[in-house]
Amino acid sequence: MTASVPTPATVPAQAHATAALSLGDDALVLSHRLGEWAGHAPVLEEEVALANIALDLLGQARVLLSLVGDEDELAYLREERAFRNVQLVEQPNGDFAHTIARQLYFSVYQQLLYEQLAADAGSPFAPIAAKAVKEVAYHRDHAEHWTLRLGDGTPESHSRMQRALDALWRFTGELFEPVEGLSVDRDALRDGWLTTVTDAIRRATLTLPDGPQIGAWTAGAGRQGIHTEPFGRMLAEMQHLHRSHPGATW
Amino acid sequence: MTGTDWPLWEVFVRSRRGLSHTHAGSLHAPDAEMALRNARDLYTRRSEGVSIWVVPSTAVTASSPDEKDPFFEPAADKPYRHPTFYDIPEGVKHL
């Protein structure tokens, strides 16, 4: 990028940069996790579906990170502690139920968040959110349909889906922590999220996890650059090529 | 248990309003709703369509290759059945 005259739309204030980084990293990291299914998904059709979702998220990440700086530098040359994504999106794919539970928790959050941002004409993220919200609505639809089928499927799929919902529950509280530079109605976000998620889980004959949504050590930690152990390994794989061959193109 | 346990579905995509649905291919899915979603991901992700139909492959009754001659041969030598004697006016599309 050349140093042209900065405009407010492309060079947001510091607070907005933090917000763009947070949302951009959420999308980038989840995109990479979903991309890991390529070649491993249970069926070909589902592999394409997950890859499509990953590509939607990658597109969002590119736009958001470009608001802050060079997208490639940000994605490939930052250290773990500089990433601002929530810990939920960095959690390993696990079995298919874990991936779907992660999708359900995150896509419901993302859709509600982007709806709010799109409706806020004063937000620098309004145009991005307005475009992304249609993509995210489909991600939520995909996650809900699978939650329903796994929960209301066989005893095996039911117990796996319940296990996945329980395991990821403690990462959901972080979604509602304040993010610098992002003015949203967090109460509405949390209420809307809980209503939608509860409804999907109930329709799938599953039980809403009852543990705390946040742990003493997880509270907002991802947004502050504190990440869980699997994230380091994911980052190593994601950044390895760019770091080994700087500037390589194809 | 593998994906081959899922039934096969035939996918028809309407590429534009005013055109009819055209067979695009087939896919596996556990039920009709998921078939519709899989079809969206497989056949319309480069904005090829505005409407999708999915039909269980088992619901399709097909003519047999063995019946090819009695089915199709008699049509070959009757040119008066073909509307080839009309000029198509200029500017008519989709004919």
UniProtKB/TrEMBL annotation, chain B:
Superkingdom assignment: Bacteria
Protein name (database record): 1,2-phenylacetyl-CoA epoxidase subunit PaaB
Pfam families: PaaB
Gene name of the record: paaB
Gene3D superfamilies the record matches: Phenylacetic acid degradation B
